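Posted in: Structural Biology > Protein-Ligand Complexes

Title: Requesting predicted complex, cobalt (II) ion in pocket

I'd be grateful if someone could produce the 3D structure tokens for the following input. Sequence and ligand are given below.
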Amino acid sequence: MATYEEIFENNKQWVASMTKGDPDFFEKLARDQSPDYLYIGCSDSRVPANEIMGLEPGEVFVHRNVANLVNNTDLNVMSVINYAVRHLHVKHIIVCGHYNCGGVKAAMTPKDMGLLNPWLRNIRDVYRLHHEELLAIENEHERYDRLVELNVREQATNIIKTAAVQKSYVHNGYPVVHGWVFDLHTGILKDLNINFTKILKDIQEIYDLTTLPSEYDEEKS
Ligand code: CO
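-- Reply #1 --
Done. Output follows.
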């Protein structure tokens, strides 16, 4: 584990390594950002977004919170999605969960978690929504892994419910929303291959926000 002082030493070495092949690396980086990817993942220290995707600074816009949740009253995650879609024009949005997620584990534990209750409620709601499927899995560890996957799928669906994503997809054909799970035991990223267009079509029967007037349409006209 690095000491506090060592972090600044590490930083200097990192700067040296980044500028070795390209002396203008940071000058270029400072100019602008136009990442193709928005990544929404867990705050867990073992799941570093850029590293697991092999992406450099400037290539992925990142939001992380406990158990990678997308709650429509969370101004933080909603601001990130809106900015990424409407201003950065990202092509892909990824929700990345991970097996052995402490947040998902806590939500599976029926007890009072204090301040965490309203946050974990989102995962407990996913559990309730898929109660039958989960109860049919006898092995507790497998049930836990499955809830991690179902949680990713639900949070991806929550992203598809947003006006920003629906409108951009109708007008531009992007962003596409993906669900991934990171396996801490192997380091492998698993694409859950969620059917984006099918989910979009299904949810638009209830959550269609593409045709309602908004301040954006008024600005254009
Ligand atoms: Co986690």
